[in-house]
Amino acid sequence: NEGATNSDEVVVIVNNKTSPSLITVFSDNFKNFSKWTESTEFDWNVEMPTEKNISGKPLPNFVAHADNCDVGCVLTMKNAIDLSKYPVATLKFLRYVDNDLDAGEFLRVDLFNGVVWKTVYNWTNGRGDDDTWRNETIDLSSYLVSNFNMRIVTKESSSSEDAEIDDVVIEAGVS
User: Is the pLDDT at 34 greater than 70, yes or no?
Assistant: First the structure.
């Protein structure tokens, strides 16, 4: 640049806008299924992770585990949650999907928006079945209703194929 210099002034405006405080309105780390209703095959169990432990979790750590769900195993929250009074809400959970899933097999998360169930995640053969525990976060802005609910659905054809969920937490913002 042959010694050339230049300068500029920049004005930075910082808005003092704070995010709402978050409170936990639902949590489950699966010591049992007391917060859930199981339907169809009854192949969901509370047990230690089958193939891989969750990094950083002390043992014993129990998770919701399903395998050999030929028709489809469904876990639905027993009690709907009133999210209508909050400006924001977030769903967080850990999930594990075995990489042995065949075509047509899956782990799925459905959310109820007050009218219909909507699939928000669907991990299946070749798409998310990576044999790894993953943290998932879902913005619930479209689900701030008085009767919010969620369900976890899985389908596998063999006991050597499994799906697992742990540490389900719903946080909502308060002013």
Answer: yes
Question: What SS3 class is residue 143?
Answer: helix
Report the distance separating Cα 36 and Cα 85, nearest Å. 23
CB 156 within 8 A of CB 101: yes
Residue 58: predicted pLDDT: 83
When pLDDT is averaged across residues 121-136 and rounded to a whole number, the result is 90
Are 44 and 107 a contacting pair, CB within 8 Å? no
One-character DSSP codes across 74-136: EEEESS-B--TT-S-EEEEEEEEE-TTPPTT-EEEEEEE-SS-EEEEEEEETTBB--SS-EEE
pLDDT for 10 equals 73
* pTM recorded for the entire structure: 0.84
